[in-house]
Model the fold of this input.
Amino acid sequence: MPRARALIDGASLGPDALKAVGQAFDEAWAEIAGHFSNDPTQIDAGRMMLANAVLSVADDSSRDVAVLKIAALDVMAQNYSSISLKQRTSEP
Done:
């Protein structure tokens, strides 16, 4: 099983929340997968970032897939902006 799905499937959430989180992850990945290269290492890293983002916005009462997906993509965008800013400010 891919690492990102294993992370989600192993989360301490009830079955309904876990189902919503898994679906939100799948839908969000379908939306952003094209932004990652064909390199399996980069794809795995992107999927792990997304899994962590989805789990960071989920709790046991999470049921709304659309809300989870949007919130996780927002987290990913914020993290990407932070990384990009750090890289730009550390360049000579």
The first helix runs from residue 3 to 9. The chain has one domain: 3-90. The radius of gyration is 14 Å. The helical segments are 3-9, 15-32, 40-57, 65-90.
